[in-house]
Amino acid sequence: MLARLASVDLAVTSSRQKKRNPGTMPLLHSLHLPTLCSSQNPNSNPKSPPPSSPHPPLLLRFRPSRRQKIQYLKTLGVDTSSSSSSSMETLDWILSIVDYLKSKGFSDSHFPRLSFLCPRIFSSADIDRTLAPVFAFLATDLSADPEQARDLILRCPELLVSNVEYRLRPTLQFLLELGLKNLNSPTNLHAHLLNTPIEKLVSKIRFLQSLGFSYEESAGLCARCPAIFGYDVENNLRPKIEYLVNDMGRSVVELKKFPQYFAFSLKKRIVPRHLHLKQRGIQIALQRMLLWSDERFYAKWK
């Protein structure tokens, strides 16, 4: 009789969280033990497959320890410092969040970014009351497919803990009324715009109104250059306006043709090019002054 020792596989798998049961164990350890030994006819072909065993494989399962759960979260880059003294139920709850996000297309490499930029996802978020409504909003209101939804969240993880009724839906409606389109396209600008309170968006329109533009004109400028919504008034928008009027001697009316002026760096682009042209007694439209590459610009006006 020949004795053959089968291989033992240790697999750690994560089980799905059951609805309304956040305490479901997200990890299971499995020991799969096939038949330990079998007899073989010495006259049979040694290369032929052995007969199937009448006994099914033995499957043993056990719960991972608290230390193993913390270690698993650390491998994902999820901060567990606040969970070091947490109960097993709390760790299971965090792991259920991980499992849910993985079901939405997130991979292991995404979790360090989520945890670093928005630790609240793993400290205070709830699947049914927080996460699921956001994914439903992105799919239904924004018409984002699963990949677009995932990429928008990766660009602005705070989306996952934003309130749909009081933040995301009103902001989306406001942006659509301004005429913005393709907001489901996963760009940094779109992701952060969706998570911007309406009050902050309106403050940029009011700033433009203070320059003499009407509400419709101000809203139109922002719609054509949505990046304006992300700039601070005192540290970005106002200094650029003051330089445009006081140093460059231009009128704010020029912004009607080229609101993208606000998107360029004052120190790295606007000032150097203006001074370069001023020294040569040249004045051109803002668009030509700022849109051209350095190579083309400085080659044209040497």
Q: Quick one: biggest sheet?
A: 3 strands, antiparallel
Number of helices: 14
Helix and strand sequence? EEEHHHHHHHHHHHHHH
Strand order of the largest sheet: 1-2-3
- List unreliable stretches of 5+ residues: 1-50
Radius of gyration: 30 Å
Strand content: 5-15%
**Could you give the count of β-strands?**
3
Could you tell me how far the N terminus lies from the C terminus, measured between alpha carbons in angstroms? 92 Å
Q: Which class of secondary structure composition applies to the elements? A: mainly alpha
Helix content: 40-55%
Write down the overall mean pLDDT: 83
Shape: elongated
Descriptive report:
The chain has 302 residues and is mainly alpha-helical. 49% of the residues lie in helices and 6% in strands. It has 14 helices and 3 strands. The chain has helices at 66-75, 88-103, 111-117, 127-140, 146-155, 164-178, 188-194, 198-209, 215-224, 233-247, 254-257, 266-279, 286-291, 294-300; strands spanning 9-14, 27-33, 58-62. A 3-stranded antiparallel β-sheet has the order 1-2-3. The longest helix is centred in the first third of the chain and has 16 residues, at 88-103. The radius of gyration is 30 Å and the shape is elongated. Residues 1-50 have low confidence and may be disordered.
